[in-house]
Design a protein that fits this description.
Shape: elongated
Number of helices: 11
Structural class: alpha/beta
Strand content: 25-35%
Number of strands: 14
Distance between the termini: 99 Å
Order of helices and strands: EEEHEEHEHHHEHEHEEHEHEEHEH
């Protein structure tokens, strides 16, 4: 339904996005995730036809965004970060107006307006002036105008920014209810937004896509997936070495890593035991620790979160770029071997024409 290939956008010498590629299948919700300033809004504006790309292609429902812009706009609903609402109009009047300018036929317009009002939970606010609505309800009106013409693709840019926790939950549920009948791109920098709403994620950092996959796959393969945090103690010497030998024969274990002891009592240690995706050897781990004459004080099974994935990808990317910048600066500061070495000023005689014999004798 949505295909993006090698999109680039430059503003003068500034590269806003480069080589952005991803795809979204029909009925899916893609979380387009990245830090502030990563290039999310630029990409969304290109996809909606608001902004031309410098190079690359994007197709929506089979139509090229640049070459067939009008056909694309008829097939998308767009909610920008600040919804474009006419505050002096009623909810119902505004949606009729939007449906008309989006080409919904006069005969079908009342049905489409009523359906979008019901889908967005605005039935008891249809006669209210938009300026009198809370921010949460105004956001619902923004989503309603995006779907009033029943587009196959919906693009939402930061739809929950500025909402209170209750309003955020309501908007999330609304977005999830639209999946299946619509293909949705949800652009956000809020991690829970993606993990609770989306089945697929694309992560952008500094204008480049650093990962795109189904959410479960990313969390399993990039961070090691499932792990167990254990706290052990006992009278065994060399606990940090011993626990590795106790667990070494167990299958499906990736690694055993010590964790900071912080305020643990004397003789207690914490370890993180990372296991293979899909395996659950918790009972075997506990049995091996007890057989090794250690005391098992705590054992907690955890799964990598989207936050772990996000931090791993964006931190690695930033560190790599910083290393390249440092190397470039170091090379620039090195002297050019082809140029003669400069002679320090103090090494140059201030009277080069005078020989030692011609200098006046020193006063006695």
């Amino acid at each position: 339904m949505i295909e993006v290939e090698q999109l680039h956008k430059r503003y003068g010498t500034t590269q806003a996005i480069q080589d952005v590629s991803f795809s979204v299948e029909k009925g899916e919700i893609l979380g387009f995730l990245g830090p502030n300033g990563a290039g999310k809004t630029t990409t969304m504006r290109i996809l909606t036809g608001y902004l031309p790309a410098s190079s690359g292609t994007a197709r929506i429902a089979g139509f090229d965004v640049h070459e067939q812009s009008l056909e694309v706009r008829q097939r998308i609903g767009y909610l920008p970060e600040s919804p474009p609402l006419y505050r002096e109009m009623t909810v119902e009047g505004f949606l009729h107006f939007v449906a008309r300018i989006k080409g919904v036929s006069a005969g079908d317009r009342p049905r489409r307006v009523n359906q979008s009002i019901e889908q967005c939970g605005l039935s008891d606010r249809r006669k209210s002036l938009i300026r009198k609505l809370s921010k949460g309800y105004r956001q619902r009106v923004g989503i309603a105008q995006a779907i009033v013409h029943d587009p196959p693709v919906i693009i939402l840019d930061e739809p929950t920014v500025g909402l209170d926790p209750r309003q955020i939950i309501e908007v999330r549920n609304l977005i999830k209810s639209l999946a299946g009948n619509h293909t949705i791109i949800l652009s956000t920098h809020i991690l829970p937004e993606v993990s609770m709403t989306c089945s697929q994620v694309a992560i952008i950092n500094r204008g480049q896509i650093v990962a795109t996959d189904r959410l479960d796959n990313l969390m399993e393969h990039l961070t090691g997936g499932t792990y167990y945090d254990v706290e052990v103690g006992g009278g065994v010497d060399g606990v940090e070495t011993a626990i590795g030998s106790y667990l070494g024969y167990l299958p499906n274990l990736r690694s055993v890593d010590p964790l900071p002891r912080n305020d643990l009592p004397e003789g207690r240690y914490r370890f993180r035991i990372t296991v293979e995706p899909g395996s659950e050897p918790g009972s075997e781990i506990a049995a091996a620790i007890l057989e090794g004459k250690l005391q098992l004080h705590e054992m907690r099974r955890s799964r990598a979160s989207l936050e772990d994935v996000f931090l791993q990808l964006t931190t690695e990317e930033n560190m790599a770029e910083a290393a390249i910048e440092d190397e470039t600066q170091a090379e620039a500061s090195e002297p050019d071997a082809s140029e003669p070495e400069a002679i320090p000023a103090e090494a140059v005689d201030s009277h080069p024409d005078e020989s030692p014999e011609s200098k006046p004798p020193a006063d006695n």
